[in-house]
Amino acid sequence: MASILLCEDSPTHTVLMQTLLEDDAHEVRCAQDGREAMASIAQHMPELVVTDLRMPNMNGLELVQALVSGQSSLPTVVVTARGSEDLAVDALALGAVNFVPKNSLNMLLNPVVRQTIAYSGSDRFSQPLSGQLRSPEFYFKLSNDIESINPATQIVIQALAASGKLNSTNRIRIGMAVASALFNAICYGNLELSDEDPIVAKVIAGDRDSYNELMNRATSDSYRKRSVHLKVSGGDKDTRISVSHDGNGRLARFNPAPGTPESFELEQCRGMMLITSFMDEVMFNSGFSEVVMVKHHT
């Protein structure tokens, strides 16, 4: 499915992640630190880098910095362990496109990798149109089907690529922020789930029975009339994106605070981390049923 460079110094975690990725039909090459990773990239350009943060010689943060400086179109996902949260926050600030906590590898690694590859492909698809789409502005009224998130987000990425705004990494990062906001709006806003509800983790991991259960809830009388609204407006100086929902829940959660160890393990908080890390301005209405995200083009 995709060529992935896995950078990890722990043999145990290398075997675990390589097995997960190969079981999902990816071709995986391995490096033990950032220096080996850079040498491998010079010989064979992957489609995606998945890297640990704490490594000898060149750590994951230094690898992200080197990749952003030299290969702005190569997306990087960082893997975080308890105690490396500060490094993860710095990696997201530097240019990583997503993160996966080590204690959530079985649940999150392949979904995050698939999402990143899809968004990168959407960006490449529209690059021949770069600069030819002027001031894109559009609005989606979405149902509470989480399978609508990626198609809608990919159109946002394609519009940004066709307008020629920002580089590939930033367009993918905006996509991640949009997808997180849409997921929060559907699951926590309209369907009023809690992050502790086991159905959330099962749906993210791709369990079809849990997805069907979620869709039964979405189409029930209590929730079926609720929609999620995605509005995108691209100008010369910035892109403004609004995500809102009709339900009684909140699409934002700040307890535990973003960046704390506990926040890395809750999906609603994880989404907020991506939104606040990737967008230049983030504004909520008083009921936390709408978020406006702004990305400056300079």
TrEMBL record:
One of its GO terms (biological process) is phosphorelay signal transduction system. The keyword Phosphoprotein applies. SMART domains: REC. The keyword Phosphoprotein applies. Gene3D superfamilies: 3.40.50.2300, Histidine kinase-like ATPase, C-terminal domain. Residues 3-117 form the Response regulatory domain. CDD domains: REC. The modification 4-aspartylphosphate is found at residue 52. It comes from the Bacteria. Keywords: Phosphoprotein. Pfam families: HATPase_c_2 (PF13581), Response_reg (PF00072). Signal peptide: none annotated. This is Two-component system regulatory protein.
